[in-house]
Amino acid sequence: MWGRLWGFLYAKYFRFWLKWVLRLLTGKCELQRVLGGAAAGARRTLSVEHSLESSKNKVLRNAVHVEEAEVEKCVRDVMKEKRIEQRDTGFKANLHISLLQISGYKKLYLNVENLRKVPYDSENEEHEEQLIELWNLLMPHENLKARISKQWCDIGFQGDDPKTDFRGMGLLGLVNLVYSYAIVGINLTEMAYSLLKNGALKSHLYNVVAGLPQMEHFHQFYCYLVYEFDKFWFEEEPESIMHFNQYREKFHEKVKGLLLDCNVILTLQNTTKP
Fold it and tell me: Among the residues of the chain, which ranges form H helices?
């Protein structure tokens, strides 16, 4: 309760006066202080995003919603509104990168969400081809005897027809499975999707991508989850597969904790932890 009250009072009253005092002391606006004082990465871009979203200026608030093609013009408009000289190339370049990251994150979420909303259709030839490709990747030395078969249970599906397992994550679940050969992949797809949706993945993506995050970066993060969950599962030594959901949530909390660090990078090649 007190935390929410303080947050409201700070946003409504104290933040304005704090910004005003700091501008008097430094001669710089909030964006200039953020872009000039922090290294490139999540901490800087998250601060820029918060500053723009909290602004009373419509031009600045709209800056977090611009498309990639509008970023350059938006940078000029922001500099004009804040009376920053256009020849300040450092500010211009840093704001351009941050806006690309913000724009790219929103676009990536929309692309992932659109793929998730596509239901698996057994009448769709492309969907069926991807499903058979998954079987061939996971079971290269065993032929699938029939499209509907108990053999699917051997690679982690719940029944004899995998299409029922894709109801929650749609085609996104299948695409990620094919991308990484995972067995518990649909659960980890949901985990990656939820972290993207609630904004928790920003710290990772803003550190990894100096520009527009793409679908491949989402897939790469998913592969990280698969690899780390495999290690986590064997380290925890659960009694049986019946405890899967319990350990999945424990792993989920661990990943969310890592993502609280603005310097975090979660990849198979480079894992930076708090």
Answer: 2-9, 15-26, 30-37, 42-54, 58-62, 71-81, 89-116, 125-138, 170-180, 185-197, 202-208, 215-236, 244-259
